[in-house]
Automatic annotation (TrEMBL):
<dbReference type="GO" id="GO:0016301">
    <property type="term" value="F:kinase activity"/>
</dbReference>
<protein>
    <submittedName>
        <fullName>FAST kinase domains 3</fullName>
    </submittedName>
</protein>
<feature type="region of interest" description="Disordered">
    <location>
        <begin position="1"/>
        <end position="22"/>
    </location>
</feature>
<feature type="compositionally biased region" description="Basic and acidic residues">
    <location>
        <begin position="1"/>
        <end position="14"/>
    </location>
</feature>
<keyword id="KW-0808">Transferase</keyword>
<keyword id="KW-0418">Kinase</keyword>
Length: 150
């Protein structure tokens, strides 16, 4: 019911949706014209941070804030599944990962409440520096919303 109300209708099992997924392979494809559900389905199919970062790398310029936060969350999920307590240095130094962090840091007010909190939780579970500008920005936005009655 939720999906129907929000125009995120689930496709019947016999209906092919692969044509949408292939649109993501084209760097010139605007993310705003592609279904978010397809993006998340594809994102969740990746089993390594490198796969997520590679997928996101050609889409950074058009990636909406909520999808950037979703990519950060997926990176954290994948790293936690590997049993790591911290993000590996090669991930932290990766230019795509840094660009995702900057995007989420600069526009946390555009993130829905659940995305904001889940992203912050994912980063803290992997012991990302609590004094990093990203974590401080997300915490400040959470505090602002709480003070405003959110």
């Amino acid at each position: 019911n939720f999906h129907s109300e929000n125009r995120n209708d689930l496709h019947p099992a016999d209906e092919a949706v692969f044509s949408q997924a292939h649109d993501w392979d084209r760097p010139e494809q605007s993310l705003t014209s592609v279904d978010e559900q397809t993006f998340y389905r594809r994102l969740n199919s990746f089993t390594s941070s490198e796969e997520v970062l590679s997928f996101i790398s050609c889409k950074l310029q058009t990636l909406p804030d909520t999808l950037a936060a979703g990519a950060l969350q997926r990176i954290c999920e994948v790293e936690r599944k590997d049993g790591d307590e911290k993000l590996p240095k090669e991930i932290l130094k990766n230019r795509v990962f840094q660009a995702l962090c900057i995007q989420c840091e600069q526009e946390p007010s555009g993130l829905p409440d659940t995305v904001l909190v889940t992203t912050l939780q994912a980063l803290t579970l992997l012991h990302v520096d609590p004094h990093s500008s990203l974590v401080l920005s997300l915490v400040a936005e959470c505090q602002r919303r709480l003070k405003a009655g959110g």
